[in-house]
């Protein structure tokens, strides 16, 4: 889902930034993805291959065998769609039965490839009008063709049309249908969304077709390879406006109704069709013969009054122009609309020419939004625009190759964003946001390869399950690695030839390898040890990634499948026995070089080191692997960091820390060596290494923040952060101006949140001062948006009831989602148990906190060490209520169990968790069942880890704070 299921990288990043006492990113990611999956599972019926369809069929079906074509999910290849004429008429008022509905008329034109008496076309949740007792009318030109029967196979979502006499190969037919569908608020197909403006509830009719929901808007051959052209007509009332993939070519009036026809689309997949009826306003231009029209759409208040679309408008055209050049292919459509929808389920969706976004992914308000919000807008816009070619013009043949579509867009979004914000160095951030983050997931024995077999992906829920962090972030990581070892000019040559070769058509992932190989064979400067396919197969056909270990005494380099839990058992077989073809770039004595590791083990003379030289492997973390060294080289690297860290590239400083902490978790490196990598950090001023250190240390915080270890850990953190605090205080003139670069702004945010959480006095005073100024009527908030999360939280933690009530009132008042989230999170920072208990009570009162935010509110209380046990008591006491509210449907339910048990590491806590499980067999745990089992496992692992390491960690922190 383009970013249909796009996960807010930033939301996750911010989670880490702001909750120092937090965040196992593994779980965070897994949960967000399973959210999307769970959502779809609600919609999708379980596969019922073995049952017959007689119960769901109407009229003519008799006893139907399970191997009938309509009992399979996939369409037969007998028919090939050519064109659709679709007219849709949404009613934006309730009908007599209290439903919002839409009426539709559609002609699907198709070519008969092979003679057949059966037409299978997708239709889901549509009530079809009957013609002579049939659910559709079949035409050959203007001549009606006789039917034998029609029925619905609801489970496979087909309208089945049986023809009296066989259709003939080579002939064109059209299937005419009229239907009524519900315009439900289910975020799928043609659906309804609502918002309040000027005290009036406004309705929007909009679409989300990916993955297989176009069939819920009109009958269609709903598979990505079934490309056709579409002529869309919308019927709607004034003062609404209509939009679709193409520009409008004609509008007529018919009584109360306006009828707008849109130009015929190019050949495209059904999942990219879009249309919207709304009262939205826009900024931007219409375009003409020479210039592509670019517009940003949204609520009138956001677009016209508050000008929240200006930032998106300023970046969209440059990004579109960049991709035209990068792909060497003109933008295929005359216009590109970007639409911000209130309460959009996904992050964004790359509908061709009519991209839809969640408001937070498109709108930006200088006065309220932080730099993180801005990064999110520019990267999501770039991601969706990247798909306009890669995905929309050239489309995967079937969903099993989704990773190529999403991985590619998730890589080039950084290139597009870099074009729009050239001063940000945003390309570096892929290492934190994608590479390191997905490695945490991909290092588990339960991971899976990028590819899956076409025949293994059939049902809607199997399709939804593909939209996960492996597809997006690992896909992006390996494509980035490929682009780097080919060099960008070669990569771009191959890419352009791939796009040209398959425009308006479909591909499998290896088609891209073929075209890249042609680009390689076309020149001599870049030599590969093996064909691209052979190299890439090792990265896409097996799960996980290697840890490359170099012994600088012998020059021996080895690779081994990296597993975060050394006790885990890998049961999934691999065609390469978990060996990879590894591109190894490295630096010795300031010189860069590279080799290929093609075997399990090799000896490389260049890796033998004498003296004080150090070897640094995987420059800028281009390769998708972790690196370990012999002790001597670790020590030489650590010495270099201590003496002059700037000689180690900034991305590699983050890598050294992240690798060390992960190797320690996997018991491949001593825990104190991992901690040693943070010693030099007080001298570093860069975001990436600091972020790596904070996320490495967050596990220590979770395990120890309620134990005697924490005293010295806190002193250590304070000692490390103070120089950074002084630095930023200086460069920001006492926190009054923001640093220029993106990463410096993030680093400033990290600095303040770390300093304030570890009680740096000056930080606490600074936060209180800003907050107190705000508390003076008329309550003007002059706190910079970047600093708000930390200032709010710190002030509430330091303050009492008055501060809390003040923030609560602001929370009730605001109608800006980004601000409401910041305020709500801060409400959980109080140190007063009774206030935290009150917040917990409020979380279940939907007049106070929206139901969708209940679980995340309880989770933020958990993040607070004082709130931890209160929240656990609360969850146990209210389990039945929580279960009835969220248990059956909500993904976030599993998240809740994970969060509430995150700090558990003692036998006592383990017992409590088991007791909780036993006490609640009725009602049970619903969607949280798996999370509960995982929490029990994790508590055991935490207990073992704490037992093994507590003494050493305590001693390390005590030594580290000695003067
Ligand atoms: C479709 O038909 C069913 C059964 O008659 C009915 O319950 C449902 O409300 C109808 N849907 C719409 C959108 O009219
Ligand atoms: C909005 O509507 C409510 C209820 O109808 C009314 O009490 C309130 O005064 C209205 N507010 C404004 C600003 O019109
Ligand atoms: C097309 O639109 C652009 C921007 O609005 C304008 O600068 C240009 O002159 C127009 N060209 C034509 C041929 O109308
Ligand atoms: C082959 O090289 C020529 C000249 O550099 C270039 O124009 C052409 O696009 C290349 N073809 C491919 C498939 O990369
Ligand atoms: Zn995408």
Automatic annotation (TrEMBL):
<dbReference type="InterPro" id="IPR045357">
    <property type="entry name" value="Aminopeptidase_N-like_N"/>
</dbReference>
<keyword id="KW-0765">Sulfation</keyword>
<dbReference type="GO" id="GO:0030154">
    <property type="term" value="P:cell differentiation"/>
</dbReference>
<dbReference type="GO" id="GO:0043171">
    <property type="term" value="P:peptide catabolic process"/>
</dbReference>
<dbReference type="InterPro" id="IPR050344">
    <property type="entry name" value="Peptidase_M1_aminopeptidases"/>
</dbReference>
<dbReference type="Pfam" id="PF11838">
    <property type="entry name" value="ERAP1_C"/>
</dbReference>
<feature type="active site" description="Proton acceptor">
    <location>
        <position position="384"/>
    </location>
</feature>
<keyword id="KW-0378">Hydrolase</keyword>
<dbReference type="GO" id="GO:0016285">
    <property type="term" value="F:alanyl aminopeptidase activity"/>
</dbReference>
<dbReference type="InterPro" id="IPR034016">
    <property type="entry name" value="M1_APN-typ"/>
</dbReference>
<dbReference type="GO" id="GO:0002003">
    <property type="term" value="P:angiotensin maturation"/>
</dbReference>
<keyword id="KW-0645">Protease</keyword>
<feature type="transmembrane region" description="Helical">
    <location>
        <begin position="12"/>
        <end position="33"/>
    </location>
</feature>
<dbReference type="InterPro" id="IPR001930">
    <property type="entry name" value="Peptidase_M1"/>
</dbReference>
<dbReference type="InterPro" id="IPR014782">
    <property type="entry name" value="Peptidase_M1_dom"/>
</dbReference>
<keyword id="KW-0482">Metalloprotease</keyword>
<dbReference type="Pfam" id="PF17900">
    <property type="entry name" value="Peptidase_M1_N"/>
</dbReference>
<dbReference type="GO" id="GO:0005615">
    <property type="term" value="C:extracellular space"/>
</dbReference>
<keyword id="KW-0037">Angiogenesis</keyword>
<keyword id="KW-0735">Signal-anchor</keyword>
<comment type="similarity">
    <text>Belongs to the peptidase M1 family.</text>
</comment>
<feature type="binding site">
    <location>
        <position position="406"/>
    </location>
    <ligand>
        <name>Zn(2+)</name>
    </ligand>
</feature>
<keyword id="KW-1015">Disulfide bond</keyword>
<dbReference type="GO" id="GO:0005737">
    <property type="term" value="C:cytoplasm"/>
</dbReference>
<keyword id="KW-1003">Cell membrane</keyword>
<dbReference type="GO" id="GO:0005886">
    <property type="term" value="C:plasma membrane"/>
</dbReference>
<feature type="binding site">
    <location>
        <position position="387"/>
    </location>
    <ligand>
        <name>Zn(2+)</name>
    </ligand>
</feature>
<keyword id="KW-0862">Zinc</keyword>
<comment type="subunit">
    <text>Homodimer. Interacts with SLC6A19.</text>
</comment>
<keyword id="KW-0472">Membrane</keyword>
<feature type="domain" description="Peptidase M1 membrane alanine aminopeptidase">
    <location>
        <begin position="311"/>
        <end position="539"/>
    </location>
</feature>
<keyword id="KW-0479">Metal-binding</keyword>
<dbReference type="InterPro" id="IPR024571">
    <property type="entry name" value="ERAP1-like_C_dom"/>
</dbReference>
<dbReference type="GO" id="GO:0008270">
    <property type="term" value="F:zinc ion binding"/>
</dbReference>
<feature type="domain" description="ERAP1-like C-terminal">
    <location>
        <begin position="614"/>
        <end position="940"/>
    </location>
</feature>
<keyword id="KW-0325">Glycoprotein</keyword>
<dbReference type="GO" id="GO:0070006">
    <property type="term" value="F:metalloaminopeptidase activity"/>
</dbReference>
<dbReference type="GO" id="GO:0001525">
    <property type="term" value="P:angiogenesis"/>
</dbReference>
<dbReference type="Pfam" id="PF01433">
    <property type="entry name" value="Peptidase_M1"/>
</dbReference>
<feature type="compositionally biased region" description="Low complexity">
    <location>
        <begin position="50"/>
        <end position="63"/>
    </location>
</feature>
<feature type="region of interest" description="Disordered">
    <location>
        <begin position="40"/>
        <end position="69"/>
    </location>
</feature>
<keyword id="KW-0221">Differentiation</keyword>
């Amino acid at each position: 889902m383009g970013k249909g299921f796009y996960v807010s990288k930033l939301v996750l990043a911010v989670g880490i930034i702001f909750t120092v006492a937090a965040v196992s990113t593994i779980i965070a990611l897994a949960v967000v993805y399973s959210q999307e999956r769970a959502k779809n599972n609600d919609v999708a019926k379980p596969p019922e291959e073995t049952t017959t369809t007689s119960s769901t069929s109407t009229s003519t079906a008799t006893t139907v065998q399970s191997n009938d074509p309509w009992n399979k999910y996939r369409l037969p290849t007998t028919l090939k769609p050519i064109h659709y004429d679709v007219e849709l008429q949404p009613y934006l008022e309730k009908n007599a039965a209290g439903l919002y509905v839409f009426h539709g008329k559609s002609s699907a034109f198709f070519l008969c490839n092979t003679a057949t008496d059966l037409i299978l076309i997708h239709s889901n949740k549509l009530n079809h009008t009957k013609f002579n007792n049939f659910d559709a009318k079949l035409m050959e030109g203007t001549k009606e063709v006789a039917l034998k029967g029609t029925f619905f196979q609801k489970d496979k979502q087909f309208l089945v049309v049986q023809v009296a006499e066989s259709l003939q190969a080579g002939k064109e037919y059209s299937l005419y249908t009229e239907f009524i569908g519900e315009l439900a608020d289910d975020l799928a197909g043609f659906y309804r969304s609502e918002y309040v403006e000027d005290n009036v509830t406004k309705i929007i009719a909009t679409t989300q077709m990916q993955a297989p929901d176009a069939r819920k808007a009109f009958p269609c051959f709903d598979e990505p390879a079934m490309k056709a052209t579409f002529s869309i007509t919308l019927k709607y009332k004034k003062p609404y406006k209509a939009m679709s993939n193409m520009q409008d070519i004609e509008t007529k009036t018919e009584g109360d109704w306006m009828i707008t026809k849109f130009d015929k689309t190019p050949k495209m997949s059904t999942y990219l069709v879009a249309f919207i009826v709304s009262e939205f306003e826009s900024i931007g231009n219409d375009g003409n013969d020479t210039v592509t029209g670019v517009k940003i759409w949204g609520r009138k208040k956001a677009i016209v009054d508050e000008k929240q679309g200006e930032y998106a408008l300023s970046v969209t055209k440059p990004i579109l122009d960049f991709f035209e050049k990068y792909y060497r292919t003109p933008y295929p459509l005359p216009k590109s609309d970007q639409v911000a929808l209130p309460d959009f389920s996904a992050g964004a969706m790359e509908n061709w020419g009519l991209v839809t976004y969640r408001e937070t992914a498109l709108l930006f308000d200088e006065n309220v939004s932080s730099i993180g919000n801005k990064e999110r807008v520019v990267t999501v816009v770039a991601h969706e625009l990247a798909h306009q070619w890669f995905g929309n013009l050239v489309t995967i043949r079937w969903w099993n190759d989704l990773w190529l579509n999403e991985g590619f867009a998730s890589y080039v979004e950084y290139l597009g964003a870099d074009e729009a914000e050239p001063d940000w160095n945003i390309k570096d951030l892929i290492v934190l946001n994608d590479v390191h983050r997905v490695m945490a997931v991909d290092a588990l024995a339960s991971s899976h390869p990028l590819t899956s077999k076409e025949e293994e992906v059939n049902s809607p829920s199997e399709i939804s399950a593909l939209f996960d962090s492996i597809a997006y972030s690992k896909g992006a990581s390996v494509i980035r690695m490929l682009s780097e070892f080919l060099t960008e000019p070669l990569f771009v040559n191959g890419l352009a030839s791939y796009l040209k070769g398959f425009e308006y058509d479909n591909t499998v992932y290896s088609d891209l390898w073929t075209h890249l190989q042609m680009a390689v064979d076309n020149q001599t400067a870049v030599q590969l040890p093996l064909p691209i396919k052979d190299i890439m197969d090792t990265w896409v056909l097996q799960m996980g990634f290697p840890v490359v270990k170099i012994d600088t005494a012998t020059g021996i380099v080895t690779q081994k499948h990296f597993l975060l839990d050394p006790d885990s058992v890998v049961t999934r077989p691999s065609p390469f026995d978990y060996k990879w073809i590894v591109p190894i770039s490295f630096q010795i004595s300031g010189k860069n070089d590279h080799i290929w590791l093609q075997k399990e083990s090799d000896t490389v003379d260049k890796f033998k080191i004498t003296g004080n030289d150090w070897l640094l492997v995987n420059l800028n973390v281009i390769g998708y692997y972790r690196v370990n060294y012999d002790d001597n080289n670790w020590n030489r690297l650590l010495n270099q960091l201590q003496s002059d860290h700037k000689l180690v590239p900034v991305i590699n400083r983050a890598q050294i820390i992240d690798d060390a902490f992960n190797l320690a978790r996997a018991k491949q490196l001593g825990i104190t060596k991992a901690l040693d990598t943070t010693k030099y950090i007080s001298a570093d001023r860069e975001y990436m290494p600091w972020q790596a250190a904070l996320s490495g240390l967050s596990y220590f915080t979770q395990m120890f923040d309620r134990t005697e270890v924490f005293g010295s850990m806190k002193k250590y953190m304070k000692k490390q952060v103070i120089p950074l605090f002084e630095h930023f205080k200086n460069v920001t003139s006492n926190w009054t101006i923001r640093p220029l670069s993106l990463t410096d702004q993030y680093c400033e945010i990290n600095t303040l949140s770390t300093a304030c959480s570890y009680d740096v006095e000056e930080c606490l005073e600074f936060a209180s001062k800003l907050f107190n100024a705000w508390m003076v009527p008329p309550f003007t908030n002059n706190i910079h948006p970047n600093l708000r999360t930390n200032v709010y939280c710190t002030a509430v933690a330091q303050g009492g009831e008055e501060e809390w009530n003040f923030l609560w009132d602001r929370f009730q008042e605001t109608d800006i989602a980004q601000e409401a989230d910041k305020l709500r999170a801060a409400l959980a920072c109080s140190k007063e148990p009774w206030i935290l208990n009150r917040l917990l009570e409020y979380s279940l009162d939907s007049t106070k906190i929206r139901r969708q935010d209940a679980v995340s509110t309880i989770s933020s209380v958990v993040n607070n060490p004082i709130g931890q046990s209160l929240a656990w008591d609360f969850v146990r006491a209210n389990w039945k209520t929580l279960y009835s509210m969220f248990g059956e449907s909500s993904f976030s339910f599993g998240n809740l169990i994970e969060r509430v048990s995150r700090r558990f590491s003692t036998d006592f806590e383990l017992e409590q968790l088991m007791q909780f499980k036993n006490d609640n067999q009725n009602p049970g745990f619903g969607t949280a069942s798996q999370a509960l089992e995982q929490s029990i496992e994790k508590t055991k692992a935490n207990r073992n880890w704490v037992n093994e390491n507590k003494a050493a960690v305590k001693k390390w922190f005590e030594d580290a704070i000695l003067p």
